[in-house]
Structures are given as structure tokens and as C-alpha cells.
Amino acid sequence: MLRGIDVILYERHKTGEDAFHAPVYEETPVTVHNVLVGEPDAAAVVSDLQLTGRRLAYVLALPKGDAHDWHNVTVEFWGQKFRTYGDVTQGIEALLPLPWNKKVKVERYG
Predict the structure, then answer these.
(1) Total number of domains in the chain
(2) Which of 42, 47, 63, 99 lies 20 to 30 Å from 15, alpha-carbon distance?
(3) In which domain, by residue range, is 88 found?
(4) What are the pLDDT tens digits along the chain (110 aa)?
(5) What is the largest CA-CA distance in the chain?
(6) What is the pTM of this model?
(7) Residues 26, 84: Cα–Cα separation, whole Å
(8) Is beta strand 74-77 parallel, antiparallel or unpaired with respect to 80-90?
(9) d(CA 26, CA 6)
């Protein structure tokens, strides 16, 4: 049976504004269980680099029922930090037999 890993998601919460009225955020770590980490093919890496200027490192498959905000947040797994980018793509939950129905792209961060 396929089984994902635990990924630390850093949720962002707005705590105020700085002197230039830009929002200031605080990050809170949350563990998300059973996340699949997939390696993209070479064509996807080149395509994303040319289209967005970002180097695709991995694609994460998110478990069904996950309600976290994965848009432009920091994630950590295998002792490294990554940043999500792009929109989360989602399949129809009832039509997918496995326990994952969403995907998000990550790039190496820090």
C-alpha cells in the first residue's frame, strides 16, 4: 500500500503592518500527514523554468479532505525547506481511488 510522509506546513497569519503599510505575517508550523512527494520529469522542470522563472523541485500530492492553504507557503520535509508556487490542482474526490486528490508544485527555498 502506498503511504506518504509527514510534511511541515508553515501557515501564515497576518499580525499587523509595517511602517510602509505592508502586511506582516507570523508563520506557525503544522504537520500534515500522508503527503506524497513526486519527482517531476525533465520536461516539466524546463517548462516551468521558461514559463515562470522557477525551478520545479517536487510535486506534492495532498491527502483528500485537507483544508490547509497551500498557496505560496513554506513547507519542510527531509530536513530541507521548499516554497509552494502556482495554484493547487484538484481532482474530483469521488472519482479518485487513492487517498490523494490535490497537487501543488514546490521549489527549493533557503
Answers:
(1) 1
(2) 63
(3) 5-108
(4) 789 999 999 999 999 999 999 999 999 999 999 999 999 989 888 988 888 888 999 999 999 999 999 999 999 999 999 999 999 999 998 898 899 999 999 999 86
(5) 52
(6) 0.88
(7) 17
(8) antiparallel
(9) 22
- CATH number of residue 92's parent domain: 2.40.10
Contacts 24+ apart (CB under 8 A), 99-103: 99/34, 99/63, 99/64, 100/4, 100/34, 100/36, 100/61, 100/62, 100/63, 100/64, 101/62, 101/64, 102/61, 102/62, 102/66, 102/70, 103/59, 103/60, 103/61, 103/62
CA dihedral sign of residues 71, 34, 15, 84: negative
Q: Report which residue type is found at 19.
A: A
- The C-alpha cell 500530492 sits at 61
